[in-house]
């Protein structure tokens, strides 16, 4: 090292020092100016006496270090960045720590005995599935490389994995992270490119896996529910590539058309860890429920739940509440969520103004919508007089960037779709519920309107496999889309509904818990 800075405080004890160390590692990782060599080994995020008061001092320490030139960004900028949100240096909660520890134990035991294995991790939105995937890969690479240099007193729950006999089990192991969504994959590649021991080439598409010259020892698969089955893929070239890949991987007597990308991954790797949430499948081409059921069965006792909701300040119950509100069995009474900014709007312009204000205050406040408008502005520039939706006199465009839209320069003036928002955290989200769904007063049910749904691949029958999808089938996927959108906001969610009857049906459920905010509207 070329220089050393020492932080001295007579009131600090060991717990405070470990907490400060974790805080600074995460800040340096998210700032991106320096390459962080430390490995967050799990001795973090522990509660101790008067922790909030000590953490106030951390912010003062950060500002002194920033004044010395060690940080370029301020704390809010860092916390809103993908380098921070997707960092392998994030502290795990207890749920996540237990899952990672059990998976590594099982993997090393399987490597020792020479047997293949499959593990499944399930959790709803905001439970940190992507963080678990990234942390797991970083931990395994550090074990593989013997990189245990920030574990001097062996207090970490992962310390035993760094013993030489354990490291030998991972020698030359080929490890990869499969991410189906293009946008999220691009963001994770940036993080891997800046993390010691990791490389962006480790972040893969299912096609990368299938076409690799060598099999993998371990593949960790994020967003498993967004893997696909054979059908009319997004482009004709992909349909052809899918057919050729499945034909190559199928056995001579096997029906290759029945293979999903789950099958590709299993056949090209010795060990797999699949992370999924069945309630987030959003297109007919996504892997079917039957394939996910088969995956759970093959995992045996290697099934792990993530229960603690880490994204939304409203708490664990909010996710289930949103799904219940959109179901055929809405709650008997609205719920309130203390400390969470949940509002319902009758005027889109007012909601947009509030989102812009939250963006100035906190950053990462965006509009998002269901796919209820055609994408007329595709390929246009911001100064072109082209728009996709006009609501209450407001003209808006869909996202102009397909990858990392949330952080793009023009995103605050645009509307994100499920394909650019899924997998990302926002501080505030303003959700526009379009006329792709409506409320039928006669049946007292939410219905799907195919004429107002413009995701062509989201409503298409799978003619290549002879599969047809009814309005009720697609309604389930559209409800999943809105569930995802309504659970992106960490600090608040704002809701605007186009269909008048649906507006009145949903109004009480999304006005609860923020009566003082609703009065301002």
Concise structural overview:
The chain is of the alpha/beta class and 521 residues long. The chain has helices at 14-31, 51-67, 75-79, 82-85, 94-113, 129-145, 164-169, 182-193, 206-211, 236-249, 261-267, 289-299, 316-325, 348-362, 418-421, 456-459, 471-485, 500-511, 515-520; strands spanning 117-123, 175-178, 203-204, 216-221, 269-276, 303-306, 341-345, 365-369, 389-391, 394-396, 415-416, 426-433, 437-440, 445-448, 489-497.
How would you explain this protein's 3D organization?
The protein has 521 residues and is α/β, with parallel strands linked by helices. The protein folds into 3 domains: 14-85, no CATH class; 94-306, Rossmann fold (3-Layer(aba) Sandwich); 316-520. The chain has helices spanning 14-31, 51-67, 75-79, 82-85, 94-113, 129-145, 164-169, 182-193, 206-211, 236-249, 261-267, 289-299, 316-325, 348-362, 418-421, 456-459, 471-485, 500-511, 515-520; strands spanning 117-123, 175-178, 203-204, 216-221, 269-276, 303-306, 341-345, 365-369, 389-391, 394-396, 415-416, 426-433, 437-440, 445-448, 489-497.
How are the SSEs ordered, and which strands pair?
Layout lengths: L13 H18 L19 H17 L7 H5 L2 H4 L8 H20 L3 E7 L5 H17 L18 H6 L5 E4 L3 H12 L9 E2 L1 H6 L4 E6 L14 H14 L11 H7 L1 E8 L12 H11 L3 E4 L9 H10 L15 E5 L2 H15 L2 E5 L19 E3 L2 E3 L18 E2 L1 H4 L4 E8 L3 E4 L4 E4 L7 H4 L11 H15 L3 E9 L2 H12 L3 H6 L1
Helix pairs in contact: 1-2, 5-6
